[in-house]
Amino acid sequence: MSAQVSSVDFTLHYVAPDDVDDLVRVHTAAFKTDQFSNLMLLGREDNAHQNLMRKAIEVWVTAPEASLMKAIDSSGRVLGWACWIVKDATGGDRVAVAKAESKGSSSVDEAEGVETSAVEKKEEPPKEDPARALGGLMYKERVAMEERYMKGKRYAVLQGLATDPAYQRRGVATKLIQAGLEEIDYEGLACWIHASPSSYGVYAKVGFEEVGRNEYDLDEWAPGGQQDDNRWGRYIFRHMLRKENPS
Question: How does residue 91 score in pLDDT terms, banded at 50, 70 and 90?
């Protein structure tokens, strides 16, 4: 018999610049169990994730094309947050994405944990660093798939979604997604998401459809190559599309 998860009371509010510390805290906590992300962070300083995400969030929170929303409890504690960015047909409204990518970070998404689609480091990694090479490959494949389906359109992308692990599976991420989609539907836009293994089911329930996927054997890319214990496992990213104003 499975254990029941208690509900939690929270309200949604737009993010302010002084919320950055809380957003970084939630994102870092949610990030810890994701194998793809952990592989990308190997060999970096202890605070690499926090530093990279802080730079990206600081860009998003001031960008006119970005919309950030937080879920807070009655004490004001941030339980989760989401960031949507609208991209126009010509690329002219993509300042927040470009600036965040220039900072460099790992890319991962998890509906009840973390989603970060726009902060993958783009420069060529050292040849002795196969994990970074995997990050570069994932980035190229993600961009190619997004351009294949969305080039020439004005649309929204879920750039960041994170829930504090202590409050996961209590509806926080779902409410954040639904609130964002209400605004997006009002504008009549399609939506794009690069989804992790743990997140795609949530997105499917709100109208997203899988249009492609990339699967990686993480042990083949880990330092030292594949080992007998296969400790990293396989990882699937799904490319998901929600069309304009679904019925």
Answer: low
